[in-house]
């Protein structure tokens, strides 16, 4: 069905076209949800709807932007945008089919006092409203779930529909690209669960992404999906080739490289169990964390795949996390390099500070990783430079991929609802939030965010954070010292990065204390740290 496109196009007509396309997404989502087997298809439609909503908000034609001025495009661009929006709506709904089936007639849109708008554009928006009214009223034309199947009887057709929607959205993004496009699409495509896609949750980008619908669905999926079993590895199945003791800030922990069953190269992280009483409880707690992380295979988690645990059987009572190497092309005969080692080498003049772009990418990767981990309701409890690892590539002349970090050190991690205090990381207070007092105050997500803030400070200056530690400083005094030196970051990495670090160190996300450890904090961390860092490029 062709739609008339006016010769004089305005922001108002773009808004009408955008509204028609968005409303049609809502209709097709309702129809698709009537079929129990269509969950994955509903998800695909939901993803494409949000891509369109994000695009519309950025371009000021969603009706929800803070910018009340219509977008300024020349007529050729407007016409192209309108035709593309019309194609989106045509793809989503067939008006004649709806009218014939449900006996509804479209009503001409009232465009108010805007003479430039085309009154023939998108009558289906009113049709959608009429459908909604009949569903709400429960009258004779109520659309029952067993009737709304015409659009999803053939899954192949619906798959084709979703492919068409993606094509039209791609076209809109090619015409006018908003910022954060890659970040938006990465989060949406990876983390919207096929279950519990609620029609009312979709609006513009800030409302949807900042309200964390996508990542909330990740949380739902991680809670509901079957947990992956954790293999109990025998010491006889491991060949240990090299061991590295980590002493900078975490006490007597260590890592080893070796092979599992003489075939699979592995990295083993060892955690000391302080007594036999806590041993089994610690093992069970760790298994829960590892199992939850295993639900998602998303590389943005920046975690190594832990497929097994090993008890070394010695009097030391060590528990080993057996990890696969992150990729087949990394050097399997060398231990990974922790960030703390690179910072120390830079301090002594043995290595140079990496380029700004590489440090930006490192900061972005770590902030996104923490966001996903926190959305999974996991407290890491030991975020610092010793637990950020880099693996050398075999064909890279020994250089380290600084922009490709991995977050390790989950030996003290626990699920957010785990209230037991079995043990605490043996770390110095430089990475510990002053408000957290072991065995006295509960550990919260703000504590992990503080640890990230310290790491971001180190990445910006490329110096160990101990550089700013003076003898006799308390944890609070040390934080004050870092905050006092934050202006130095402005010259090194820019004001946006500096403000993100400030929020992490102070925990000032504008929240009441009751919301300081829930989804409100996740929303705030997303919008004021993760999304802000995405704007840093060099």
From TrEMBL:
InterPro entries: DUF7580 (IPR056002), HeLo_dom (IPR029498), HeLo_sf (IPR038305), Kinase-like_dom_sf (IPR011009), Prot_kinase_dom (IPR000719)
Assigned keywords, A-Z: Amyloid, Prion
TM regions (residue ranges): none
GO molecular function: ATP binding; protein kinase activity
PROSITE patterns referenced in this protein's UniProt entry, alphabetically: PROTEIN_KINASE_DOM (PS50011)
Domain Protein kinase: 191-538
Keyword Cell wall biogenesis/degradation part of the UniProt annotation: no
Protein name, as recorded: Prion-inhibition and propagation-domain-containing protein
Lineage, highest ranks first: Eukaryota, Fungi, Dikarya, Ascomycota, Pezizomycotina
């Amino acid at each position: 069905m062709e739609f008339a496109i006016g010769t004089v196009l305005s922001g108002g007509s773009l808004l009408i076209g955008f509204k028609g396309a968005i409303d049609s997404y809502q209709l097709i989502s309702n129809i698709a949800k009537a079929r129990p087997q269509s969950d994955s298809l509903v998800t695909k439609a939901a993803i494409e709807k949000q891509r369109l909503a994000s695009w519309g908000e950025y371009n000021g034609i969603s009706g929800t932007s803070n910018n009340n001025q219509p977008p300024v495009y020349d007529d050729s661009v407007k016409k192209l945008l309108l035709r593309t929006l019309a194609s989106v709506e045509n793809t989503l709904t067939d008006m004649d089919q709806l009218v014939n089936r449900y006996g509804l007639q479209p009503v001409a849109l009232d465009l108010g006092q805007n003479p430039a708008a085309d009154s023939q554009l998108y009558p289906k928006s009113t049709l959608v409203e009429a459908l909604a009214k009949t569903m709400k009223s429960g009258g004779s034309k109520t659309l029952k779930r067993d009737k709304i199947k015409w659009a999803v009887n053939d899954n192949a057709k619906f798959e084709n529909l979703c492919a068409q929607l993606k094509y039209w959205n791609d076209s809109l993004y090619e015409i006018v690209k908003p910022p954060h496009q890659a970040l938006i699409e990465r989060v949406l495509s990876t983390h919207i669960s096929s279950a519990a896609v609620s029609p009312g949750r979709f609006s513009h980008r800030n409302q949807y992404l900042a309200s964390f619908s996508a990542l909330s669905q990740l949380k739902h999926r991680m809670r509901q999906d079957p947990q992956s079993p954790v293999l109990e590895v025998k010491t006889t199945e491991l060949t240990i080739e090299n061991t590295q003791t980590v002493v900078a800030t975490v006490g007597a922990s260590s890592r080893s490289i070796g092979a599992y069953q003489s075939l699979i190269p592995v990295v083993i992280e060892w955690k000391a169990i302080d007594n036999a009483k806590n041993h089994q409880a610690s093992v069970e707690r760790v298994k829960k964390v590892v199992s939850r992380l295993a639900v998602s295979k998303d590389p943005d988690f920046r975690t190594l795949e832990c497929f097994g645990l090993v008890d070394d059987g010695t009097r030391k009572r060590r528990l080993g996390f057996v990890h696969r190497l992150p990729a087949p092309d990394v050097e399997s005969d060398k231990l990974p390099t922790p960030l703390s080692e690179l910072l120390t080498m830079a301090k002594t003049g043995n290595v140079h500070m990496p380029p700004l772009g590489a440090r930006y990418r490192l900061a972005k990767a770590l902030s996104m990783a923490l966001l996903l981990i926190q959305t999974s309701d996991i407290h890491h409890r030991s975020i610092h430079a010793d637990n950020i690892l880099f693996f050398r590539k075999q064909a890279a002349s020994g250089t380290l991929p600084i922009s490709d970090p991995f977050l390790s050190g989950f030996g003290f991690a626990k699920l957010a609802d785990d209230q037991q205090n079995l043990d605490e990381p043996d770390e110095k207070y430089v990475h510990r939030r002053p408000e957290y007092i072991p065995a006295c105050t509960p550990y919260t997500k703000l504590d992990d965010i503080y640890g990230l803030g310290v790491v971001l400070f180190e990445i910006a200056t490329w110096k160990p954070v101990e550089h700013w530690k003076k003898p006799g400083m308390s944890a609070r005094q040390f934080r004050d010292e870092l905050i006092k030196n934050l202006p130095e970051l402005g010259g090194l990495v820019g004001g946006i990065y500096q403000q993100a670090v400030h929020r992490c160190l102070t925990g000032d996300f504008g929240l009441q204390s009751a919301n300081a450890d829930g989804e409100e904090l996740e929303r705030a961390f997303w919008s004021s740290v993760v999304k802000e860092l995405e704007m840093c490029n060099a």
